[in-house]
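Customer escalation, tier 2.

The customer says the design service returned an amino acid string that "doesn't look like it belongs to this structure." They asked us to rerun it and document both sides in this ticket. The original structure tokens are below, unchanged.
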């Protein structure tokens, strides 16, 4: 990095700090964002004893390095067929994730579960698309209201992502099947 680049970087940081200090002096409003990871974590932790209907999960979307596009998981599930004693393979695709655990001994690997968007009746919606907006519905009665756990987990290297967008803390619906799947890392 040249002295000019270093100075420019420092000037930008210094200027943004000054803007924040000035804003803090003239406003008494909450300094926290109205949405995002910080708020979702505060909302999830605000009660000391969770009840049956309280939030248990912070759904999130990861953004890939280089492309700045949402990471949309596309995988295969071995699902049970209703009324039959057989299983079939189906494609599951979603940008919505739930953190399950950090892999011990890894630098930055985590197990995440795929969440599916659902309407008010718990019907899973929009299992297709290449853009984030294609997984959300705004038309009644199919508006995206909550999420459903899938039981499908995968290991991801979080260093492969440049940003995270947390959604409001929620209590997802349980998986439709009881099977638990684990994929190898991305």
């Amino acid at each position: 990095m040249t002295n000019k680049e270093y100075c420019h970087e420092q000037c930008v940081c210094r200027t943004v700090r000054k803007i924040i200090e000035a804003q803090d002096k003239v406003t008494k409003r909450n300094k926290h964002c109205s949405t995002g990871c910080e708020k979702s974590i505060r909302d999830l932790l605000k009660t000391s004893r969770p009840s049956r209907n309280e939030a248990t999960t912070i759904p999130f979307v990861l953004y890939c390095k280089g492309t700045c596009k949402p990471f949309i998981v596309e995988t295969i599930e071995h699902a049970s067929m209703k009324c039959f004693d057989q299983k079939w393979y189906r494609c599951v695709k979603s940008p919505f994730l739930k953190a399950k655990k950090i892999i011990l001994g890894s630098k930055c690997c985590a197990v995440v579960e795929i969440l599916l968007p659902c309407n008010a009746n718990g019907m899973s919606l929009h299992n297709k698309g290449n853009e984030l907006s294609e997984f959300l519905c705004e038309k009644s009665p199919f508006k995206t209201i909550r999420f459903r756990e899938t039981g499908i987990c995968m290991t991801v290297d979080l260093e492969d992502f440049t940003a995270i967008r947390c959604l409001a803390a929620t209590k997802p619906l349980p998986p439709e099947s009881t099977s638990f799947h684990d994929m190898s890392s991305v």
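Tier 2 assessment: The sequence is consistent with the input. The chain is about 20% helix and 30% strand. Residues 47 and 83 are 41 Å apart (CA to CA). Sent an explanation to the customer and offered a walkthrough call.
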